[in-house]
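Example 3.2
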Amino acid sequence: MTRRPLVVSALALVTALLGLMLVERLGTTYRDGLDVTADAADVTVAGITAARSLTIEVAELAAATATVVEGVGQAIGDGATTTAQVGEALRSNVAQGVDGTAGVANDLAAFIEFLERLIPGNRDSLAEDLRSVADGLEPLPGQLRRLGADLSATSGRLDASVPAVETAATQLTEVAQRLAEATTTLEAAQDLAAQLAERAEAARRRADGDLWIARLMVVLLCGGVWLVAATGPFRQSASDAT
């Protein structure tokens, strides 16, 4: 029975040593985990900051492009209207005016030719010049009508392209809005990552103190066991046996 207090003391000492080793191992693992967490949080903050900055730039670019495309759509619509008006004018008023001018030149040439017969002497014939002008104008009305038809067809194609351009402008505007919303989400994630980094850093600063407290608890617990073994019932049992 006299060996029992020694065994308990030895067990208390071994337990204290093992407890201290365990605390040290857990403390190292805990500190390493905090280091990794803090570093990962810092990297996350940096990555989110870069992503947020890029997202803001892309959102601004998308919004500016949407404005430009919308202006292009309006310009195309205005151009289509103007082209249609020019084509119609060429097919009708301008062609008819040129045709009428050619007819007037022919009629005037005939009248001048009649007058020239009444005037004696040799001179350059103004009537021939007018007929040359009339002959030069004769194919022009047909060319103007064909050009007017081509312009009308072009106007139709421009009109058909306007909805596609307007759709593209609308889609770009929606993309810009979604990117703006993503920017808000990234900002919130950035704040969370920064808070995590701060908490990890604070825990890392407290880690050494916590480990000393854990070591002290192990020593006190094992010391209490040894004290009980040395002065308690086991000691009394040894005295009775003697």
